[in-house]
Structures are given as structure tokens and as C-alpha cells.
Design a protein that fits this description.
Elements (H helix, E strand, L loop, with lengths): L3 H9 L6 H7 L6 H18 L2 H20 L14 E2 L2 H12 L1 H4 L13 H13 L30 H15 L1 H4 L8 H6 L3 H9 L1 H4 L3 E2 L2 H11 L7 H6 L5
Parallel strand pairs: 1-2
């Protein structure tokens, strides 16, 4: 819905504008051929501003340049291209959240969830501590989706689980998979796993290999099949993972 001028101004925040586009924004006289070039440039930028691949390219390049400068080196900074997976239901969302929130621990960057810097988990924990100790806290600039407070008053903009149970789940999963980093494996399962009907060992396997267990989308087999039909795909990756989990089958 952006006008051509708005698209050009947004693009200018990231890159230098060609002279012709700059003249067009300044409302300088242009002939028909010059106006065509301007229109083609803006159409290309409009597509790129909506493209997740282009967004990740710009983001990754900027971070890579800063990291290489800090480390005094050259070459590739990222191990591989980014991956995009559609999360089709709450169980897929929960699994992916736990997988991502444990990445710093898996990489050996820290040994507890509380020490994970620059993560959504850190922001949620800071907010939780502030709410439970009546401390002042800055507004949630990241606009993270809130967890549900009461199951009988679920709102459509809430994650349908208790935050305390999610913390228990993440902590237990981290300990169980990487006991050399996190200590012992608790004997009891998280209440959240029991409510989902997911077995302990299959849950650990799925969280450990989440990105490889599914393809471009994750969710129940029914949701995956429907997603593939809408996307025009002949098959869906993840059938084995779905059938391993009783709650996904």
C-alpha cells in the first residue's frame, strides 16, 4: 500500500539512491524515458522490501561485516543460508521456541537460560522478574507475544501455555539433552509435555533435531498435508516426526 515515494524513502534508509530517483523525489523535470527508469527501480525495490530473503541478506551482510572487523578476519561469517519454516500449530510453535531458546546453551556460550544474552528468553525473564518483584521496567520494545495467564480466559493474541511451565520445559529439555552442561536430568516430566501427550524420549529427539525433522513447514500431519496442498507441493517432509509424537499423529 506504500506510494512510490514512500518506497523510495524507505530504500534510501538502507542504500544510496540513483541520481534519477533523487531528481524525481526532488520533483525535478524528467522526460518519459527517465520516468520509466525511475518506475522500474521503485518496482524492484518494492518487491525487495517485501522479500524475506532480501531482508535476511541485508541483515546477515551487515552483521558479518561488523563481526569480521571485530575479529580482524575476512571470509564467510555465517555457516549456511537461513532457513524458513512455517509453524502450523501450537505444538510446532512450542517445539521451535524451545529449540531456538536452547541454541546459546548448545553452542557453549552459556550454561543457563538466565545467562542467554540478546534472546527473546532473556527479554521474557526480565519482564517476569520485574512483574513479580514490582520493579520498574522499560516497555517491551520487541513486542513479544505474551503467554496465556489463565486457560479459561484465552485471548487470540496469547501463546496458549503458562510461561512458568514453558520455563520448566526449556530448563528440563536443556538438562536432559546436554547433562554435561546443565547437570542432572530431572526424573519428573514437565506438566506441559504431559498435557500434550508427548513422550519424553521422542520430545527430546524432536527438539534436538527440529530443523532436520521438518522441511519448509512444521505441525501436525493433517496441517502439513493441508499446507502442501495450498502450496502446490507433491509431498511433505516430517511424516516420521509427526508419527513419533502421539500428539502430532
Amino acid at each position: 500500500d506504500l506510494t512510490d515515494a514512500e518506497v523510495a524513502y524507505r530504500w534510501q534508509q538502507l542504500f544510496a539512491l540513483p541520481l534519477l530517483v533523487g531528481d524525481w523525489l526532488a520533483e525535478k523535470p524528467q522526460n518519459s524515458a527517465e520516468k520509466v527508469v525511475v518506475s522500474e527501480c521503485i518496482a524492484k525495490w518494492r518487491g525487495r522490501l517485501m522479500d524475506i530473503s532480501w531482508f535476511m541478506r541485508c541483515l546477515n551482510e551487515d552483521i558479518a561485516r561488523k563481526a569480521n572487523k571485530e575479529d580482524g578476519c575476512k571470509g564467510y561469517f555465517w555457516e549456511s543460508r537461513f532457513k524458513s519454516q512455517a509453524l502450523l500449530d501450537e505444538k510446532a510453535l512450542l517445539t521451535c521456541m524451545a529449540y531456538v531458546d536452547l541454541n546459546p546453551i548448545r553452542a557453549g556460550m552459556c550454561q543457563s537460560v538466565e545467562e542467554q544474552e540478546f534472546t527473546s528468553m532473556q527479554a521474557r525473564l526480565q519482564q517476569w522478574h520485574a512483574n513479580h518483584h514490582n520493579a520498574e521496567t522499560s516497555p517491551n520494545k520487541t513486542q513479544l507475544l505474551p503467554f496465556e495467564k489463565q486457560f479459561d480466559t484465552q485471548q487470540p493474541i496469547e501463546i496458549p501455555y503458562y510461561f512458568e511451565e514453558y520455563l520448566h520445559l526449556v530448563d528440563w529439555t536443556g538438562r536432559a539433552i546436554r547433562d554435561d552442561k546443565r547437570g542432572f536430568i530431572p526424573a519428573n516430566q514437565p506438566k506441559l509435555l504431559q498435557s500434550l501427550g508427548i513422550e519424553q524420549e521422542t520430545w527430546l529427539h524432536l527438539v534436538k533435531d527440529f530443523s532436520r525433522s521438518f522441511g519448509s513447514a512444521a505441525g501436525s500431519w493433517e496441517a502439513l498435508t493441508h499446507h502442501s496442498e495450498l502450496a502446490g507441493h507433491c509431498w511433505s517432509r516430517g511424516q516420521v516426526a509427526c508419527h513419533q509424537l502421539s500428539g502430532y499423529g
